[in-house]
Amino acid sequence: MILILADDFSGAAELAGIAANHGLRAEVQTRFDPDSSADVIALDTDTRLLSEAAAGHCVSEVAASLQGVSVSWLFKKTDSVLRGHIRAEIAAILTATGLADCLLIPANPSKGRIIREGRCVIDGVPLEQTVFAHDPEHPRGHSLVAELLGRDDRIRVPDVTSLEDIEREAANLGVGTLPAGAADFFTALLRRRSAARRPAEALPDDDFPRLCVSGSAAAWDSGRAEEMRGRGVVVLPLREPPAEWTDEVERILGCHGSVMMAIGRPSGELSPAELTRRLVAAALPFADRPGLRIALEGGATAVAFIKAAGWERLRVLPGGGSGIARLETPTGELWVKPGSYPWPNGPTLV
User: Fold this and answer.
1) What are the pLDDT digits (tens) for 70-101?
2) How far is CA 193 from CA 19, 25, 209, 334, in A?
């Protein structure tokens, strides 16, 4: 079994989707259960929004529970712009597992996210000049990796500006080193360590009503509402009370087919957690709607929705697009993606 530890649900689902497209049986869990027939388990520890001490403690307990569990290799999924308590969580894993050190590659060159001269750069723009400077929980006020991560001599973060750089690092990874980072690094390791078993299926191209639930501030600030409106999707920002929001979505689904519920950038004193709670409360009545494909955008949104629905483990279906995971629910299909990446073009749109 390959085990992925991620600090949010969309990250866990993203890597599980890559594994499923590689032909492996994969599932996403919110509570670790090694009694599974899956080749890959992606566990959401849901620690990104905890305190540093609480995040480290939680991950330490999970890593310690691996004693006696047959894990062929372990991967620590991190945010590509180093949000969360990455240093503390990696340190906890190293201590619990006895691994000597960690190779951390948060860069995703395939999506324009690189590390050059020790700094995070997105599409040629320094991190602190992007929408991540205004992240509600982990604002990125600078781009220097050493300052974003904190110091730990056991963690090496190389400059990575291309997929070739990642392939070279993957080829030289030692057996006593914990691999950590984002999707491009995981993909490179997966290709080296596990033979593909079956071709990935194509994403379905259906015309039944679909619902996107987006709680991502990064997505909103990068123009997701305008993008969706340009593709014919009705966008409904936060409304009060939630029941009226739900009724409006129901009406639009019935006559239009595609709608996005989004937190947006509301004024007022509500915390990000409370905004997510209200979004999920309004969207949850659609969770058990047969035949309705729901897309969740943003890790906090995804895990809040999934926990509210009572789902602890979901099988991953092959065929997800770039950054998208397709998950099987008791009544249908759920798509999950990180909020900071765009939706792909074409018929795979929500």
Assistant:
1) 999 999 999 999 999 999 999 999 999 999 99
2) 12, 15, 39, 28
Pair 127, 143: CB distance under 8 Å: yes
How is residue 306 written in tokens? 């999934």
Domains of the chain: 2-193 (3.40.50.10840), 210-337 (3.40.980.20)
> What is the rounded average pLDDT for all residues in the chain?
90
Cα distance between residue 121 and residue 116, in whole Å:
7
Q: CA neighbours within 13 Å on the CB side: how many for 299?
A: 29
Name beta bridge partners: 179.
Answer: 103
Q: Which of 49, 32, 50 is nearest to 41 (CA)?
A: 32
Interval 34-68: pLDDT, tens: 999 999 999 999 999 999 999 999 999 999 999 88
Question: Can you state the angle between helices 163-171 and 183-193, rounded to 10 degrees?
Answer: 50
* DSSP per-residue string spanning 12-24: HHHHHHHHHHTT-
44 close to 9: Cβ distance less than 8 angstroms = yes
Residue 147 has φ and ψ, to the nearest 5°, of -80, -35
What gap in Å lies between CA 320 and CA 327, rounded to an integer? 9
Residue in this structure with the two tokens 């999970």, named with its chain if needed: 62
Residues 114-134: tens digit of each pLDDT: 999 999 999 999 999 999 998
Q: Taking Cα atoms as reference points, which of 345, 346, 341, 349 lies closest to residue 123?
A: 341
CA dist., res. 27 & res. 56, Å (int): 24
User: d(Cα 328, Cα 330) in Å, to the nearest integer?
Assistant: 7
Average pLDDT over residues 290-300: 88
Q: In what order do the strands lie in the sheet with 125-126?
A: 113-116, 119-122, 125-126
Provide the CB-side half-sphere exposure for 199 (13 A, CA).
3
What pLDDT shows up at residue 204? 54
DSSP-assigned states of every residue in 330-342: SSSEEEEE-TTSP
Residues 6+ apart with CB under 8 A from 299: 7, 8, 9, 10, 11, 44, 48, 338, 339
45: which 2 tokens?
A: 């520890």
